[in-house]
Amino acid sequence: MPLIVKDYSWTQTETLVYINVPLKGVKAGKVDIFSTDEYLKLEDEERKRIEEMKEQERRRATEELEQWKEKQRKEEEEKKAQQRREIQKLEHEKKKKKDEMKTYSKSVKLFATQNYLAAVNAYNLAIQLNHKLPILYLNRAACHLKLRNLHKAIEDSSKALDLLTPPVADNADARAKAHIRRGTAFCELELYVEGLQDYQAALKIDPLNETVNADAEKIREIIQGTVPDSL
Known about the structure:
By secondary structure, the protein is mainly alpha-helical.
């Protein structure tokens, strides 16, 4: 005799369905279970839904994996590119340093042979290669003094002093020279007060320099009007 059972619970796997039916005064025995088409339809839809969820999860996991691989590839490429840039930078700096030394040596030789204009041009090139070396401005100031480019001598001496900071024992000699060269240019322009200030600054660095002391005294006498305007 067929019975319609509504009070039941069930679980299922992909291949089996387990149905628990409460027995109320009925002896358990072998039974056949029939389900309606509606249940079969719902079961099929549920199976499809589960399969779609699994497929979506699989696609999502695949996409995330591909994205991770792409990210790793880009990071590796950037790392290699950075290494290439570092190597190129080192090679460029090495070549630049070599060019600096070559140009500086050429400038010194030109100055020693009194070819001051060519020395200025050589120092111009050296400064283009490295504009942060105070010795280049200091030496170019000496060239300008020889050529009587007095305003340029003042400008280069001032630039050298700007770069010779902080004032320490290692750059004391260069700072003294910069003050003397700027002071000399000021005096050549008959700006004796400014020139004396630079000579006094040089004497603070090297107070025992007899030549600078003597020149400073002459500048004082010129300012006081006791000697002709010449050093």
